[in-house]
Design brief:
This protein has about 575 residues and is α/β, with parallel strands linked by helices. The chain contains 19 helices and 19 strands. Among the domains are: about 55 residues, no CATH class; about 110 residues, no CATH class. It is globular. This is F-box domain-containing protein.
Length: about 575
């Protein structure tokens, strides 16, 4: 749960085996790599450095295709020149039928469409004959972006025979033609986010029209409506999409924050026989019909994540009762007056292995309703995530959590959960004592944690501004955390050595940046010190998050080391 798996996740795809990337043609190259069995070559190829791949591509035709199978396994399409060149090449591949031509399209397994600035111009398109031909064939009035999207639709439909996953991350209107191309593509995992979808879209024919045989789907779209009266057609489009994917869909993530009206299936019931993981993030439900279709006729759901502000969702869960196969439940968000409905659902599903409550709850709710259920009935629970709507976590609650000996993953948080303010003053000595009995812990997360600093009395050392103000303790010299080159530069800036060509404002800005860099190193060192104490306490601990750092625990023989996975701090948020 600390590294919880999204109901629809994009895992990095291995390159295709060379025989598939080479479209079944016999290997003619004498290069030593091709003496390896195909399966081993597939494992070795991704580890070839990018510069070496470029050199390898110059050896012969087979080496070139092997390099392509790695270089183009995952592609991000933007409006830059490299993307325009790639799209031009893929268009050309759709038009050529030369038997022995080598192609890029079969090598692409994951396709990300990220169309932001800069916008296209007609002058840029003229450098790409196939793209420009699309532009010339479009009816007036059309713009270069229309030609780009039309070409993209053609490529998705015809040029990517081994495509596994497609991620749309562009605030661009998806036309019926483009969505139809996505439907006809080979992708089995599709994520559509940030897109604008018109309510008049007509892609799926109710009577025997094209099915969309995908396994994983993410929907996070914004709807364009000519008038408010068209809001009911949103339900029609969503019903068409879900009906088309229902026979094969295994995981669905549906985010509804930008949906302007409540949705319903009406009298229609759509069955999802293979659905195993479901995330409903603030989808406004008009009634029980959608929830019933997704959850009432399927006893094989393993993972359920729910966030909603409507009464229909809360009441449905309260009445749904026991879900035999359910192992993981995440309560993302809910109005406080609906808490009782969700608690009834928790009481009915004591078989859970993972429980995540990402919204902050009052301490009394956690101590009198949530923890008693967890302690007495959740005998198989191995993963727990709780957030307190308070500035501290009560010792009584920590002592109960310390009795959950089967826990392998634990995520705790308190205080403000949004914005720059972090006002949970974490007390690691208290936590270490309370959690000491959890010998099976493998993953430990403390998010929104903050720390006390006794800094200079004229500086704001308040806990809630710990990360914002970056104040050093009064007994710490920030220059101790600078490199020799940085110290030399600082001395020049403040005039302690030979003067350099720098204005007062530039010198002041440089000093501020160097102090911030030094503070980050001091904070990271401090955080690693805390992480080291947990690593020594819990012999199975492999990973932790605190001080806004992802930290990996490495155990080499009798030594235990903690290292940051990335030098950049990240304010972790629940998925």
């Amino acid at each position: 749960m600390t590294r919880s798996i999204h109901p629809v996740s994009f895992q990095s795809h291995r390159p295709l085996t060379f025989d598939r990337a080479n479209r079944g043609r016999p290997i003619k190259s004498t290069f030593p790599l091709f003496r390896l069995p195909i399966e081993i070559l597939q494992d070795v190829a991704p580890h070839i450095p990018s510069l070496d791949l470029e050199t390898l591509a110059l050896v012969d035709r087979d080496c070139r295709q092997l390099a392509r199978s790695v270089q183009f396994s995952s592609v991000r399409l933007t409006y830059n020149d490299a993307s325009l060149g790639l799209l031009e090449t893929l268009l050309e591949e759709t038009q050529t039928h030369e038997e022995f031509s080598q192609t890029i399209g079969p090598c692409i397994r994951h396709f990300t469409i990220d169309l932001g600035l800069p916008k296209l111009t007609e002058a840029r398109l003229t450098r790409y004959p196939n793209l420009f031909a699309f532009y010339q064939r479009l009816p007036e009035p059309s713009c270069p972006q229309d030609a780009f999207l039309a070409a993209l639709a053609t490529v998705l439909s015809c040029s990517l025979p081994n495509l596994q996953s497609l991620a749309w991350q562009s605030r661009v209107v998806i036309s019926s033609e483009l969505l139809q191309a996505i439907v006809f593509s080979k992708a089995r995992t599709v994520a559509i986010s940030q897109a604008l979808v018109h309510t008049n879209m007509d892609v799926f024919d109710l009577y025997g029209g094209p099915r969309w045989p995908i396994e994983n789907l993410v929907l996070d779209t914004e709807w364009t409506m000519p008038s408010f009266e068209d809001s009911n057609s949103i339900t029609n489009v969503m019903t068409d999409i879900l009906r088309a994917v229902s026979p094969t869909l295994q995981r669905l993530s549906w985010r509804g924050l930008r949906c302007p009206s409540s949705v319903s299936f009406g009298r229609e019931k759509i069955i999802f026989p293979r659905l195993r993981a479901l995330r409903l993030d603030a989808v406004p439900m008009a009634d029980f019909t959608i929830l019933s279709s997704l959850l009432s006729f399927n006893d094989r759901i393993l993972s359920l994540e729910v966030s909603s502000t409507d009464r229909a969702t809360a009441e449905f869960l309260a009445s749904r009762g026991h879900m035999e196969a359910l192992e993981s439940f995440s309560w993302l968000n809910q109005r406080h007056y609906m808490e009782e409905d969700i608690i009834l659902f928790l009481e009915a599903n004591t078989q859970l292995r993972s429980l995540s409550i990402g919204q902050s709850l009052p301490p009394i709710t956690i101590e009198t309703r949530i923890l008693p259920i967890v302690k007495s009935d959740y005998l198989r629970l191995t993963s727990l995530h709780l957030v307190w709507d308070a500035l501290t976590i009560p010792d009584t609650a920590l002592s109960v959590i310390g009795t959950l000996h089967q826990l392998q993953r634990l995520w705790l948080s308190a205080g403000a959960q949004h914005g720059w303010c972090n006002n949970w003053k974490i007390e690691h000595d208290v936590l270490l004592r309370a959690l000491q009995p959890l010998h099976r812990l493998e993953s430990l997360t403390f998010s929104r944690d903050s720390y006390e600093v006794h800094g200079h009395p004229l500086l704001d050392s308040s806990i809630e501004k710990y990360y914002h103000n970056a104040v050093f303790p009064y007994d710490v010299n920030f220059q101790d955390y600078l490199t020799p080159d940085e110290r030399s530069l600082l001395e020049k800036a403040i005039g302690l050595a030979s003067y350099v060509d720098m204005t007062f404002e530039q010198a002041r800005s440089l000093q501020s940046r160097l102090m911030k860099a030094a503070w980050e190193r001091w904070h990271q060192q401090r955080t690693l010190g805390f992480a080291g104490m947990y690593a020594k306490m819990f012999a199975r601990l492999e990973w932790c998050y605190m001080g806004q750092y992802h930290i990996k625990v490495e155990r080499i023989e009798s030594r235990t080391c903690v290292v940051v996975e990335s030098p950049i701090r990240e304010n972790l948020k629940p998925l």
